[in-house]
Amino acid sequence: MSALDPTVRAVEAVLFASPEPLSIDSIRAHVGVEKGGSDIRTALETLEATYSGRGIALVQRGDRWHFQTAPDLAHLLRRDREEARRLSRAGIETLAIIAYHEPVSRAEIEAIRGVAISKGTLDVLMEAGWVRPAGRREVPGRPLIYATTPAFLQHFGLTSRRDLPGIEDLRAAGLLDPVDLALERLEDEAEASSGAREEQGDSD
Amino acid sequence: MSALDPTVRAVEAVLFASPEPLSIDSIRAHVGVEKGGSDIRTALETLEATYSGRGIALVQRGDRWHFQTAPDLAHLLRRDREEARRLSRAGIETLAIIAYHEPVSRAEIEAIRGVAISKGTLDVLMEAGWVRPAGRREVPGRPLIYATTPAFLQHFGLTSRRDLPGIEDLRAAGLLDPVDLALERLEDEAEASSGAREEQGDSD
Amino acid sequence: MTGEQLTLDLDGWEGPLDLLLSLARSQKVDLRQISILALVEQYLRFIDRAGRMQLELAADYLVMAAWLAYLKSSLLLPRQPDEDPDPEEMALRLQLRLERLAAMREAGARLMARDRLGRDVFPRGAPEGLAVQRKALWQAELYDLIATYGRINARTRPVMHVVADRQVMTLEAALERVSMLVGSRVDWSAIETFLPDGTERLRRSALASSFLAVLELARQGKVELRQAAPFAPLMIRQPA
User: Fold this and answer.
1) Which of A34, A40, C148, C184 has the fewest CB atoms below 10 angstroms from its CB?
2) Alpha helices in C7-133 (DSSP H)
3) ipTM score over 0.90, yes or no
């Protein structure tokens, strides 16, 4: 860029630093009259031409001027990113209960789990595509019931739900051993507090 | 400006839109790889040159880049006369010691200043975002050590710590060495020169 | 000398080293060439004046004064060979400290004078902002799933408590039994003769509780105890 005209430089800096669009009068109030410089309006025209076709543009809105990023580049300012995230303990417990007991209502999940589940937990499982609503239970209140999806089987490498090991298999594998219950409770507490943080994080 | 290179435009837009300095990696994450465009570093160099002498400048602070107004236009932009909270003398000296000696423990700061630093002094520097704890020194007592932050470089307009005013001269003069080390060196030098004299004496 | 004209407002100094540096500056020479002896004189005169004006001096100023007075005498007196600490070295050390403080003070001033962001140079006033929309790719392993199910089961399965048959004699029972039996004995009897019949496990428990019981009864003066040697039979009788 050639622009070393002092007024042009000054107008450029003032508009850049301003938190809001500026009228010619307020630009002049900042810039004053630079010796040997062009007037404000000429400077604005020069800048408008200078920035034409660039990543940023000088634009006029009503009688105020401001810089903005070029409209055709708006997509760069918002970007999607896929992040691998591990399911929380509440999430995996809920998923396990649905997988073993489907179709199952939320109240039934809570009864089995012994702990209430937050709305977000089922949402996450549905967002992951592993769980779907599967109609309503024909009991008073007609609660929604949930079941697993084909994507669930696929993700966990199962041909069918019958591939899930039964209670006796789990016992044989020592997975029903209550020894680490106390430890687990501690972990739950730790997770509950980090879960709270996560939810905060999710909201931004 | 001629620059219609798509990467240059994109980098320009992303840096303008960002509320904070960006590393090359985060610029790339937004810009992606434009077909036929130059790489990010080249684009940054192009922009740096393009904006040279204008009212806005592209600057590097640590490994991050951002646009800011040209320093010589400060008089147009200073919004209010009074500086936002002046740092105390203790604060300024402590900041300088951390910046020139980092990482440095509290005891080392106190050894240079010859007085204890009040608790508030380090707090103020950390609150300003210029100083951070940087681990512990592996000596008895494992004292915390402090270092400067990227925000420090940004605020003081430093590309890197090598840009600290006069740091090379101070280092060359041994003024960044602890007193004990400096003393040893002086003794060594004195010995070497007296040794040299002795040798001369012998050869007579 | 300029040093004398320094105001005596000690609040203005950040400790003795700061004061020394200001005094050294008044010598108007490179710190590498200052006269430590002259500096010491200046400092001591300063402290002396402060004392005469009855200004309260912080302890560290006085400590420094005492140290400098010692340094001064060491520097003036004929040098003892192998004197430790070496006064020349002490003086040099002081000079090096002053140089370092001065260097950092100057560095701080130069740092503050730079074009500072938000004061001299400004970032964009109204940045559009960059947004990252995160899309979660949820991950979980089959093992986690089944292990978790096992844990839920273990956690919520009804727990049955089985109390094993424990053959014990309580302290209360032992107290009652020993009190009752000791009255019917005429002479010293070994503790074992007070134990009920039963399995070996019951007898061990009964021995322990009966031992505690006889200690308690002895304390109350209701029985007398005798033991000839360690591990010899413990003999019990009613007091005569």
Assistant:
1) C184
2) 16-25, 36-52, 59-76, 87-112
3) no
3-state secondary structure chain B: CCCCCHHHHHHHHHHHHCCCCEEHHHHHHHHCCCCCCCCHHHHHHHHHHHHCCCCEEEEEECCEEEEEECHHHHHHHCCCCCCCCCCCHHHHHHHHHHHHHCCEEHHHHHHHHCCCCCHHHHHHHHHCCCEEEEEECCCCCCCEEEEECHHHHHHCCCCCHHHCCCHHHHHHCCCCCCHHHHHHHHHHHHHHHHHHHHHHHHHC
Which chain B residue has the Cα nearest residue C124? Answer: B68
CA distance C99 to C102: 5
- What residue ranges of chain C have pLDDT lower than 50? 1-5
pLDDT at A194 over 70: no
CA distance A103 to A161: 12
Read off the amino acid at residue A45: E
Distance from CA of C52 to the nearest CA of B (A): 25
Q: Does B70 touch chain A (CB under 8 A)?
A: yes
pLDDT per position as a tens digit, A95-108 = 999 998 889 999 98
CB B136 within 8 A of CB B145: yes
Sign of CA dihedral A86, A87, A89, A93: negative
Place of tokens 């696929």: A154
Phi-psi region of B80 (alpha: psi -120 to 50; beta: other; left: phi over 0): beta
The Cα of B193 is separated from the nearest Cα of chain C by a number of Å equal to: 18
